[in-house]
Each structure stands twice: as C-alpha cells, then as structure tokens.
Amino acid sequence: MDFYLALLQVIGIHALIGLSAYVVILTGQVSLAQAGFFAIGAYVAGMLTVLAGWHLIPALLAAGLVAGAVAFLVGFPALRVKGLMLVVATTAFGEAVRLFFFNFDYQVAKGGVRVGPLGGEGFKQIRFFPENGYTTLDVLVFIWVVVGVVMALLWWMDRSRAGAVLRAVGEDELAAQAMGIDLTAVKVAAMTAGGVIAGFGGAIYAHYTTHIEHFNFGIVLATFAIAYPILGGLSTAFGTVVAVLFIQGLLIEGLRFLGDWRNLLFGALIVLAMNLRPHGLLDAATTLRLRRLFGRGGAGRDA
Amino acid sequence: MTTRHIVTPAMLALALIGLGGTAQAQEREVKITGFGAKSGVVRSFGVNSEAAMLAAADQINKAGGIKLGDGARGKIKVEFFDDRCVAEEGISVLRRIASSEAVVAVGPTCSNVAEPLFGVLQKKFGDASDTGVQMPIYTDVAVKGGLAKISEWAFRNVPSEAVMYDELFKYIKQRRPELKTVFGGVEEDFAHSRATWHAVMKEKFTEAGYQIGGEAKWLLADTNFANQVRDMKRINADIVAISAHPFSSCGVLKEMERQNVKPKLIIGLTSSSSLETMQGCAKQVEGTIIPTSFAPVTPLATAAADATAKFNGSLDLHSGAAWEIMIVLKDLMEKQGVIAKADTVKADREKIRAGLAGLKEHEGLIGKVRRTEDREAIKPFVFVVAKSGKWEVLHAPSM
Amino acid sequence: MMIDFLQSLVDGVLVGTTYSLIGIGFTLIFGVMHKINLSYASASVGGAYCGLLLVGAAGGKSALLVFLMAAAAAGVIGYVVYLTCFRFIPASHPLGTLMSTVGMLLLIDEIVVHATFGVPVAYPPLYEGPSIELGELYIRPDYLMVFAVGIAAMTVLTLLLYRSRLGLATRAVSQQPVAAQLCGIALYRVNAATFVVTGVLGGIAGAMIGASVGMLSPLLVLPLTVKGLIVTVIGGLGSIPGAIVAGLMVGGFENVLQYYRGVTERDLYVMLLLFVFLVFRPGGLFAAKSERN
Q1: Chain C, nearest residue to A269 by Cα
Q2: What is the value of pTM for the model shown?
Q3: Min distance C268 CA to chain B CA atoms (Å)
Q4: B22 touching C, CB under 8 A?
Q5: Is B87 within a domain?
Q6: Which of A130, B377, C4, C205 is the most exposed, fewest CB within 10 Å of its CB?
C-alpha cells in the first residue's frame, strides 16, 4: 500500500512540472526552462527549511515566488524569439540555472555538521517530512492539495476569458494581436505562472528525495516537462495528468514485470502513442465526448 | 471511442502496476531484492550485481537453503529492479521493496541514488517520531565515502577508498622512492570520482609525503581534454592520478599519448579497474595501477567468478560485493532466527538490521572483511596493474 | 599566455568541426520539412555503432569499411525514423513530431545500451600518434579530416540540392509542399529521401566523432544533440554554411571559456552567451529569408 501512495506522490510532483509547461505551451511556446525553475524552487525551499528552519508551507510559497520572479524576468527577453529558437534559448537558460547550482556553495554549521548546498556534492538531508512525523499518506495529501489547488486554478482560468486569451495567442498570434491582445503581456504572464508552478513542484521534490544535486535538473527533466502536456493533449489540464500517469505509472512502474524490456519499450511506446494519438492521449474530441458523457454541454457539436 | 477506451487501459495500467509486487509463496521463500542501474551507461553494473546475487542464491539453495528461526528451511528468492540511476526511481523502487515481503534490499549502483535513498530511511532505529522508511539496505556498489552514517538502516559492503589509497601510496613510496610529485585529474561532476580525488586521494598523497603539483578537472561526458593535459604536461609530475570513470579516463589517456605526456606512474580510480577500461583503451592504460577489493586470487573468488559467469555476469569489485552480501545474509538470517512468513516481515527486517549492526567481521571472497561502527566495511584489497589488455595482480597487502 | 589562448582556441575550433557535422544534418531536415528531428544525434551515433558491430561481426578490421557500414546503417535508421516519427503524424502538428523523435532518441539509446551493456567501445582512429606542430601550436590531424568531411558534405549537398532532380523536388517541397504535390512531386518520397541522405551524413559524422574521440558511448548523444541544436540556430535555420561556421564558433568559445573560467563554469557561460545571442540576434548568423516556426 505504502508503495502505491509513494507512487502517487511522484505522480503529483511530475504533474506539477507538467502543468508548469502546459500553461506556457497553451500560448504556443515550447519552454525547456521549466527544469531550471523547478531547480530554483527545490534549492530555495530546501534552504529555507534546512538552513532557516522554516515550515514547509511558507518555504513552498517562497519557492514559488522566487521561481515565478525569475520566470518573469526571463520571460521578457526569451519570448522575443519563437519556435526552435525559443526551444534552444530556454534550454540554454535552464542549463545555465543547473550549472549555477553546480557551482553554488552555501553551507552553515548546524548542530556540529555543515549543512546546505555544496556544489557538485549536492544538498543533502532535506528531511522536513520524516522529521516532523509525516506519514506517507500525510505527504501524499500535502502534495495533492498543492496539485489540486493548481489544477483548480488552471481549470477556472481555462473557463474564463484568460484561458481564451492564452489559447488565442497559441492558435494564431497575428489574429490575437489584431483583436487587441497584448502578446508580450500574455506570454510573460503564462511564463510567470509556469515558473510559480514549477517552483512549487521543485520545493516538494527536494523534500521528497531529501537530497538534490544539479544532475537531477538537466535536459532530461526539461524534456519530460514538455512531454507531459504534449503527450496528454492540450485541450485540458487533465491531459497532462493523464500523460504523467502514462509515463510514471505505466511506462516506468507498471512495466516493471517485463524486466529488461521495460527500458526498451519506454521510448518505443512514446513513439507509438504519438502515432496513434498525435494530438495527445486526451485530445479535443475525447474531451468533448467525456464532457457529454458526464452530461455537461457539447452535445450536438460533435459531427 | 467510448468510455471503454478510457477505462480499459486505466484498469490494465493499475493491474500492471501491481504485478511486480506480490508473488504467492508455495514453499517458504526468503525474498531478497536487489536493485541498481540496468539502463543507460551504467547498465553493466546492474547486470553484474544481479548475476552475482542469482549465482550466490543458487549456490545457497542447492546446498539446502537457509535454516529458519522456526526450524523450517527457506529458499532464497532473488528479484532485481532497475532504478535507471535516477534518485526518484530509486526511492520508488525502495518503497516497492518495503511494501513487498522482501526481508532486505541490496543496492543501489549509483552514489547519487544511494544518498537520497538513505535520507528517506529512518535516521535512528526505534525513533518513533521519525517516519522514515524502515528497511535494511545493504549496498554493494555505490562507493562514495561515508554514506552509511546517514541512517541506521543503511549498511554497505563497499571498500574504504581511504584505506586502499593510503596503503597504495605507502607501497609506492617504499618501492619507488624517486617519485615525489603528483598531478591529479578529476571527473568533477560525478559524486564518486569527485569525492575520491578531493576527499581521499589528495589527503592521502599529502600524508604519504607527496607534493601535489596541480590538478585538472573535466566532466563525465567531455571528449576534449587538450587544455587539461597541457597543464599536466607543464607541471610534469612524476605521478598522474586519474579519478574518473572509464569513458573519460580513456579520453584523457589518449590525449596524453597525443601530447606525448609520459608520467613515471599512473594511478586510477577503483571503479576503472574493470573490463570497460580495457575495451576502451587497453593500449593507453598499460601500466596503470589501481587498488581494488576484488581479484580472482583465492579459490573462493575464482569459484564465485565462474558461478557468476554462468548467470551471464562478470565478477568485479562491485558485483563481488553483492556475492559476499548474499553469503553474509544467509549466515546472519540463520543466526538471528529469521522466520520469513508474511506476518513476520517487520520483525525479520529488524532482526537483520540488528544482526548487521552487530556484525564485527565476516569472510569475504579474498579475505576477512571488517565492519566499522558507522556500518561501513574495511575490505581486503589488492593492487592491480594493467598489463597487455588485462588487469594483473601486482601486490596483495596483508591486512 | 597568448600562446595558451591561441592553442585553446585552435583546439576548440577543431573539436567544433564535429559539432558542425551534426549541425548540418539538423539544419538540412529543418530546411526541408521545417521540423526538428531530436533523434538525429542518437541515430548518427547509433549508425556508427552499427558500422563497428557489423564489421566486427564479419571479422573485419578495416576502418574504411567501418565508416562505410556506419553511413549505410545510419541511412537505414534515417528512413526508419522518418516512417515512425514523421510519416503518420500530421504535418500541421510540430509538437507531435518533436515528441515522437524524443521517444526515438530514448529508444535508439537504449538499444545501443542493450547491445553493449552501456560500456564504451574503442573506435578505429583516423590517425594515431602525436599532433602536428605548427610553430608553437599543436594541431590534431584527425579533426582536420573531420573539417574536410564537413566541407565535402556541404559541397555534395549543395550540388545535390541545386543540380539534381531530387534537389529540385526537395526545394520545391520545402517552399510549397501543396503546390509541389500538385505538380506531381511525391511528397512522402522526397521527405523520405531527405531523411536517408541526412542519415548517411549522420552516420559519417557519428563515425568521425567516434574516431576522433577514440571511443563510442551513449554518453556522447545528449551533448551532441544539444550542440547540434545550438549550431543549427546560431548558424541560421536551414543554412549549411551557417551550421559549419557556428560549429567552429561554439567549439572555440567553449574551449576558450574553459581556459579562462575552468570546466565547472565553462558551460554556464556558454549557455548564458547563447541565450543573449538568441535574444538579440534571433535570426542567427546567416538569417534565413523568412522567419519560420
């Protein structure tokens, strides 16, 4: 049982990084900087609970704020470029953040031992959860409350004008601009929101693993961040969560019984999924059917 | 597309997740679960550890298995999980093992997985306020110094590099007193190699009376070492110590050949005393000396290597440790009276933990292994030298 | 110290030749399909592995044979990549192919890992022995050969693009896919041909890289993918000479920064510089005529 609860924790954390990329992708931008914001969240929250002795909740909020602020600052220059240029520019930024932490030492003596980030050695003993008596279920609830709040906000945003604006920019920038939408403001807002969400994710991640180092925040993580919304489909935020379930639940943990075939199938099944459902596991048509199934709108619109 | 299309895969996924976990026991099975990297560039480590564990279990089972605490006989059942050398996946695997009936976990491969993993464990045994995982882990591979002190549930059977390099440098000092200066090269972004140069080799060289002339750093996946080797050439030290894994070690050795840098002696990292290095650069590595805790120098070690080969693995200092762990666990479980029933799992794990914590020494493949207070091992070792495509034993210091 | 700076620059530029070679493949696919193939570097290294394994299995040892087999194998892989990652995914959906090629990258890597246990394998060198001395500078001849191959590839590709029927069709497809189809050009066949040609080039690149490093390892793939992308955008999307110049530039910058700032900060500055460059010169060095996504 404990294992399933812990797996749901991992899924929650990955859902956060996936959602952070989802917000940005809605505006038509593919950002590989999310792992960088995630790293910032992880280090900030870890330093606040371990070095400053904060409770995790304010530390988490601070992590989201700092990561969001960095995303805001990066957003302005980065969003001047588009498409592949943006992919590479955000990769560069994300890697720069990772390499910053590779070179970042800040240790203080606490109870006879030196704690804090130590460059390539990493930042160890971030043990807020076990030290404060959190059971696996408690941690799970904590994580999913955060995920739930983020999801609820995204769902609400999606139904409001803000969502329509984001999607309009994503679908056709020129038309959106012609409608009087301020492209820069929208894109930077999405980038900032993505940064905040990634910061939350990172904060939880640091406390989940208890030890973080620059290796954890590389291009592989950044790629997964965008993989979730793309694989899941962009029509709702739930698609991203479905994709996280697909990758973390099925491909990584679910296929373990296949032994050596698992790691081969990992890439192959991603290729297959994209061929069978190019617009995502939960694409617009499926979403519509689901809505109709639960009796909410959409009836008759589907040909 | 109907709801069935959504629900069926979801059910299937849930069913699949469960499959790895529970197997119903017909006879009394004693489950020991290994884990480590079987994907990516470190795959060989996981493959070899698994083979060694399977081979050792096979040998134990054929000899009658384990005498359990209630008089019954148990057969060891080995399972092995791949953690891909990723911290989160390692933690998931550990939790999976902790949720199963396995009495002890053996692994992991990577130090960057071991460190978070040990952090997830309960720090002090019996501390009810600490909700960390309570599962004894006995590590075979991850070798970065001093990790077991993170948790009282963590034990390691990895060699102490501090002791090995200390002895090696003294040995060299005595045999070749004309060597005085050292140049160090370190793979700076990998936990193990980095720690070995900065925290072990450097200190031990100084203690042995050597003068450190300089050092050069590079990264795990680097392919261009021209600058570093140029520094090396300029300083022209008698000894060059390379704390790096086979890929970049070979890259540096090849660049040294290109720039015609010929130190009087080259010393390598424990993990590089493997076939990998020979496959990558047998010619350039010639003459390099490395301390290692395994070589087929005793009948026991040779037999174990042959048995492991039958399970398609090769026995080296890392997988050799996995073999030893299985043998130690067998004796320990008999002594501690492990029952290995579904409802005794928690008690069994505590027995094993207590047994390991109380263990002062045990037989290893090439001699007696001593265990320290902080749950680490001091293992016998030999110095090997690269000679025409093979690692040959140069010297076996008496312990 | 001046000489050290120069030597670092020369070494870096020479290593940069390998980045150029990978960059050409990326940029060519982008030029024709306006899509990015993230599995390109892994397919190239995979092809190089195949060359070695095939020739080794046949008991051969000739470096030239290894190179030829690598090129052929990578051409086949290129075609497979086209079929599995592009052919059936709607052209209007660039995110779909981005993701499928990521999956392919992971798959090819893991196949290599399974075939070799992830252990580095020695690759036949183009040249072994000390470097050439040019005044006070040392120059590695094998990288000069890599550079020569890069130039040769550019020449052949330019000829192919501008002097052959396939090239004409390719350019037509790249500019107006629908109109080209209306003119009777088999769109899929032209696209597939592009993947085979870039695949062959990638196989040669992979083999040259294996030969200059002296080893092949899956460790090479990720850095090469990133460098390939960087070179493609700095050189200007779709520009072959741009990719060559950008490769040399990136290599040179990298090594000079390493000389001044050390290896742990090297990539930090490379990435920051790149970020600034892209933001202020989004078209790259050799900007293409129109901005594309």
Answers
A1: C103
A2: 0.91
A3: 13
A4: no
A5: yes
A6: C4
